Amino acid sequence: MADLDKLWLWQEARKDYRREEERLHKNPTYFELKKAKKEILAVEATVEEHEKRLRELGEKLASAELRCTDLKNKIQLLSNRLYSGDTKNLKELAGLQQQVEVMKKELESTEEELLQQSIQHDELREQFSQIKAGLKEEKNRYRERLAAYNAWKSEVETNLGILQAECSRLETEVNPDLMRLYLEMTARYGDSVLARLENNLCTACRVRVPTLLTKELHQGYGLVRCENCGRILYWRN
Ligand SMILES: [Zn+2]
């Protein structure tokens, strides 16, 4: 029965199609890439946070530097007045002296603060450049893997297209009544309604098929179903 040949080919093409489809949807690389992308985004957020902190610290440093310069200038001016000999009034001199002392103390603490901040700034910049280098490497790896995955995916999709066309073509060539029966039987047998006969065994349930039935099958008259599982038996030399 030529129809069974077509139906068999159709069933096998459909199984191949399902297998390819499963391969496409269950590829662990897809999930790994998704996870890697999420991680990259998280690191990028950290980088942004770092950039913000570095910027803020840089601004603090600049303002502390300005404050130091300003204090040094003021101390210089006051010292000039103090030692120029122009001011004779003792109270005024004592006042100037006190102002100089206060400013010197402030200068000292601002310089100390500046030093601490600049150490912190350098440490942060070092950490930041390491994170950035790591991120760059991670992104490169991700891009390479993604490109490989996409190439693989498009190959599988091409296969799927070919198999789909093959299924559609065969489907139109099978007797519609037989196709209807087959589709009804898929409710019970899934994608394996046809079972091959091999060494007088049904390949689906591995039960021996009686000689009478195998004879009928070999003669090619009508449909022969496995007495055990009920599938349609298919046989070809
Ligand atoms: Zn069987």
Keywords for this entry:
single chain, 237 residues, mainly alpha, Helix Hairpins, 2 domains, three-stranded mixed β-sheet, 79% helix, binds zinc ion
What layout of secondary structure does this protein have?
Blueprint: H1 2-25, H2 28-83, H3 90-173, H4 176-189, E1 194-198, E2 201-202, H5 211-219, E3 232-234
Helix pairs in contact: 1-3, 2-3
This protein binds zinc ion.
What's this entry about, in short?
The chain has five helices and three strands, in the order ααααββαβ.
What does this structure look like?
By secondary structure, this protein is mostly helical. The chain folds into 2 domains: 172 residues, Helix Hairpins (Orthogonal Bundle); 56 residues, no CATH class. It has 5 helices and 3 strands, in the order H-H-H-H-E-E-H-E. A 3-stranded mixed β-sheet has the order 2-1-3. The two termini are 13 Å apart. The site of zinc ion (ZN) has 9 residues, from loops.
Q: Please report the number of helical segments.
A: 5
Written as H for each helix and E for each strand, in order along the chain, the element string is: HHHHEEHE
CATH architecture of the largest domain: Orthogonal Bundle
> What is the mean pLDDT?
94
How many independent structural domains? 2
CATH class of the largest domain: Mainly Alpha
Radius of gyration: 42 Å
- Helicity range of the residues? over 70%
Measure the end-to-end span: 13 Å
Query: Which strand-content bin applies to the residues?
Result: under 5%
Number of strands: 3
